[in-house]
Amino acid sequence: MTPAKSSAPPERPWTTGTAPGSVPLLGHTLELWRRPLQFLASLPAHGDLVEVRLGPSRAYLACHPELVRQVLLNPRVFDKGGVFDKARQLLGNSLSVSRGEDHRYQRRMIQPAFHTPKIAAYTAAVADDTRAAIGSWEPGRTLDISDTMHALLMRVAARTLFSTGIDEATIDEARHCLRIVSDGIYKRTMAPLGIMEKLPTPGNRRYDRANARLRQIVDEMIRERRRSGADHGDLLSTLLRAEHPETGKGLDDGEVLDQVVTFLVAGSETTASTLAFVFHLLGAHPEVEKRVHAEIDEILEGRSPTFEDLPSLEYTRGVITESLRLYPPSWMAMRVTAAETELGGRTVPAGTMILYSAQALHHNPELFPDPERFDPERWLGDRAKEVERGALLPFGAGSHKCIGDVLALTETALIVATIASRWRLRPVPGTTLRPEPKATLEPGPLPMVCEPR
Predict the structure, then answer these.
(1) What is the pLDDT of residues 228-241, one digit of tens each?
(2) What CATH code is assigned to 1-72+331-393?
(3) CATH classification of 87-326+394-452, choosing from 1.10.10.60, 1.10.630.10, 1.20.1310.10, 1.20.1250.10?
(4) Who contacts 248 (Cβ-Cβ below 8 Å, separation ≥6)?
(5) Which among 49, 127, 242, 449 is most buried, taking Cβ atoms within 10 Å?
(6) Which three-class secondary structure state does DSSP give residue 348?
(7) In this predicted model, what pLDDT tens digit does every residue of 19-41 receive, in sequence order?
(8) Is 450 annotated as a binding residue?
């Protein structure tokens, strides 16, 4: 490790290092492909800023929270690129992949859809869909909680976006397409040369068909809503009526299409995986589950939870936050330097890939003592104040922070409270959690047995 001076903060000398295990031509690509979570979590031990090789290219992983903040809070220097360009195949020029003034313009247009009164209104659909889903559960029945949560969250996302006019068969078809496309985007991202995606393989043809069909489903919903002119109070209505606060200009159908597809991905894939991880952790830690049940019983007194109840469910929210720490949906992301700059005391040329990883931050023992331990009390009272600024990064930071973070946390807490008020979920003996790092971090199959409370 080589100490290097930095102006932020001036009292700290940054340390830089190089990731071990690079091989000729491939660099660390095989490590990132074979065991990405373990590899990333190991890198903070080598410095605050660690050089990695992606094939012939040099990249850097920002391992210290302040360096990550520097990257995320300065989008003019640390620009989106690389993997985000791959994601445009699915997400178009939506908020999650747009840059610069275009991103600022879109965010101002869309932000009202995520104001607190709107989020409170969306939760009615969340509660209804959750109660309907668990209404068919039976004592002793074994569920794949991962698949169950993905099915539920696809319905929740569809209802939040469209509220009416989309039937169960179309929702299931959209979910099927979304899984194919999401997996395809990840594979294309991990193949930076872009050769395989251009070949007419069965997998590429399946990807193209799923992508086209998903966008067709959404486009038909937008066109129908435009024709009817009805305001259903859902996200689609909000987007169709959005106007820039200065110019008064609205979004055209293509722009609305890109945003809706993005919200379907973010609103179903990431939240569903988080819920599956939460229920797995509760099942594996009965003492934590007991406290969650006690809190829910005390606050709800036998009724169904509402948006207004969520601030009182402090321990339950701590469980969710700790799950996000252990299993962050966005496990790795990147920026590209738009100009030569300094980071961690190193001069970094323009066009350099800068990686940052919630996985590396969240499992760093210098930031979180005993990082592999599931400990919801990290987020309660004075202990929560001890967490270093920027150490928890499940939704990003800065102007590109996930616009739906509050909605995602609200949905997660409401669904956990609704299910946990009626059911326990017990892991099937012999089940091993094997997180799958794809476009987002997924839990893989998680069979659990329903047990009524």
Answers:
(1) 888 888 888 888 98
(2) 3.30.43.20
(3) 1.10.630.10
(4) none
(5) 49
(6) strand
(7) 999 999 899 988 988 899 999 99
(8) no
